[in-house]
Amino acid sequence: MKKTFATLALALFVTAGVFAGNIKSSSVPAVVKSYVERTYPRVSPVEWNYEEKGNYYNAEFKIDGAEYSVDISPEGKLINSTNEIAATQLPAAANAYIAKQFPGFQVKEARKLVRRGSTYYEAEIHGQNSNQMLTFSESGKLLDKKL
Questions:
Q1: Which domains, and CATH codes, for the chain?
Q2: Does the pTM of the predicted model rise above 0.85?
């Protein structure tokens, strides 16, 4: 019985942690909401989360079907952002690298990432019974390759 109770208590604790970050828009500081409204004026609705460990707000939303995730400090400054992009929006050098190094592969998903002021691109490519995750610099130079 004690073992069952302990398992149930652990499950409830873990489940509560998963939902603890979701917050109502009314709980988000005006300066944080203002950043999102100014930078992404066509956005609605926005799902808000607060990440206590990192002390930042996360906004998730879609624009024209593309998913966005933006982390903003309580002072209204961008920390990180990730958004889906079309393969054609990757840097030209990145697309040239993929075509040359991975003939026959297709870009399944592409993302633009901004991390503390630096811009990166990710391309998930598929082909020949293989998948790769490639990370490129803003200029299109390969930075990382994962299977």
A1: 1-78 (3.10.450), 86-147 (3.10.450.40)
A2: no
